[in-house]
Design a protein that fits this description.
Largest sheet: none
Region (Disordered): 32-54, 84-112
Biased composition (Basic and acidic residues): 102-112
Shape: globular
Number of strands: 0
InterPro entries: TAT_signal (IPR006311), TAT_signal_bac_arc (IPR019546)
Distance between the termini: 50 Å
Protein name: Twin-arginine translocation signal domain-containing protein
Strand content: under 5%
Helix content: 55-70%
Radius of gyration: 23 Å
Order of helices and strands: HHHHHHHHHHHHHH
Length: 434
């Protein structure tokens, strides 16, 4: 059975992999990172120096309340407690198994001791949930390998977490001063409840013979631990937002109505843009081999489809805040893709990538992001998140030496177009919420 290896990539890469895992994004956001593989589609690769992309400044978090430090502190305390239950040199009859458990413990300890690289507090919580999960997997495997059968206790704990999640979900009435605030405050709560639901499912069952399958026991234990951590954070964020507010009205009904309307708007907009662009293959018949345009079209098409699918999943699950925010993201993606096709038709992006062109694209992306959030609009800040993630993803790839120059430039060009489309999408969503 496969287990997370841990180790060697940067904190940002681990964050992006786990979010997105964010599902959607991500808490870190509602969009995945469908940038594809690392190889060029054709042509020779251009070597990029590690600083070719650089960094981008993140705006303040759009979550409309301070996130209590006690939430991350609780995760850290629990993580360290789990690891403390496992000796550095586990006494397990199977020497190879003992060595593997010991190595896993050391990797988990190093991650726990490392600084959390997160630009928004909700992302820091996500990092700690993953660390807590890893520690639980080590402890669960160790206990199983030493003959402790936690199967019955784990089943009871899973049931308790499931009940707690259901109770919290039933209590969420989306109380907020405004519909916009409700969308921004409760989207991360919905995402955390969905994370809890995914991990509390017994998709990995505790083995009948834990001594024979300790790592399966560890994984089953880790999933319940992650579910409990997500439920804790969902309650913590909801309480943080409501704390000190004098009975704001429930916004559930209005968010549901707006989410349905926005889903229809996204569908109509996508159909209109596709028709005007020339259908499913807007640049059919043109030879874009070896150009940035080839990568730009592929990136935009995949991101747009992913964003639209995210809305459908959110609406079907009854996650109205996620659907509202996701609709804003999808409208932004659609407009960015339209702009990309228009620019390619106008003769842009039809060359290859060089170090100079990548640096210029990074600067355009940075400027576009800065302009998108210049008005201090929390909704615009939330919608620009996929662009920020895209920028940092390629920056990490280049810094680590795993760079495709054309794909790097294409992603940066797309980030610039995406961020440029954010203000209009934010205004459209805000008007529907008014």
């Amino acid at each position: 059975m496969s287990r997370e290896s841990g180790g060697g990539s940067s904190s940002r890469r681990r964050f992006l992999a786990g979010a997105a895992a964010v599902g959607a994004a991500a808490v870190a956001g509602c969009s995945g990172l469908p940038f594809g593989g690392d190889g060029e589609r054709s042509g020779s690769a251009v070597s990029l120096p590690s600083d070719a992309v650089g960094s981008v400044d993140w705006p303040a978090s759009p979550f409309p309340a301070a996130v209590p430090g006690s939430l991350a502190d609780a995760h850290e305390s629990r993580t360290r407690s789990l690891l403390d239950d496992v000796p550095a040199e586990p006494e397990v009859p199977n020497a190879e198994m003992a060595a593997e458990i010991g190595a896993d413990r050391e990797r988990a300890r190093k991650r726990t001791d490392s600084e959390v690289a997160a630009d928004w507090p909700v992302d820091a919580l996500s990092a700690w949930r993953r660390r807590r999960r890893d520690a639980a997997a080590v402890r669960g495997a160790y206990r199983a390998a030493t003959g402790v059968d936690d199967g019955a206790d784990l089943a009871a704990r899973r049931s308790a977490v499931r009940d707690a999640r259901a109770a919290l979900a039933s209590e969420v009435e989306y109380r907020a001063e405004s519909p916009v605030a409700a969308a921004l405050a409760y989207e991360p709560v919905e995402l955390l409840l969905a994370e809890c639901e995914r991990h509390v499912r017994p998709e990995v069952t505790y083995p009948a013979d834990p001594v024979a399958e300790p790592f399966r026991a560890g994984e089953a234990t880790a999933r319940v631990e992650r579910a409990e951590a997500a439920a804790d954070d969902a309650e913590g964020l909801r309480s943080a937002y409501l704390d000190g507010r004098d009975g704001p009205p429930a916004r559930w009904a209005s968010l549901i109505a707006v989410a349905d309307g926005l889903r229809a708007s996204v569908s109509r907009t996508r159909s209109t843009v596709r028709e005007r662009a020339g259908g499913d293959e807007p640049l059919r018949g043109e030879d874009l081999s070896g150009t940035v345009a080839q990568e730009l079209v592929a990136t935009g098409d995949l991101r747009t489809e992913s964003a639209v699918e995210d809305i459908e999943r959110a609406v079907d699950a009854g996650n109205c805040a996620t659907a509202v925010v996701g609709s804003g993201v999808a409208l932004t993606e659609i407009d960015a893709f339209r702009a990309a096709v228009d620019e390619i038709r106008d003769g842009e992006h039809r060359g290859g990538a060089t170090e100079a062109s990548v640096r210029a694209a990074a600067e355009r992306a940075r400027t576009s992001v800065e302009e998108a959030v210049a008005g201090d609009d929390p909704l615009a800040t939330r919608l620009v998140r996929p662009g920020l993630d895209g920028f940092e993803y390629v920056a990490d790839r280049v810094e680590e030496g795993y760079s495709s120059a054309r794909r790097t430039q294409a992603t940066l060009e797309y980030v610039a177009l995406y961020a440029g489309a954010v203000p209009a999408a934010s205004e459209f969503v805000r008007e529907r919420l008014a």
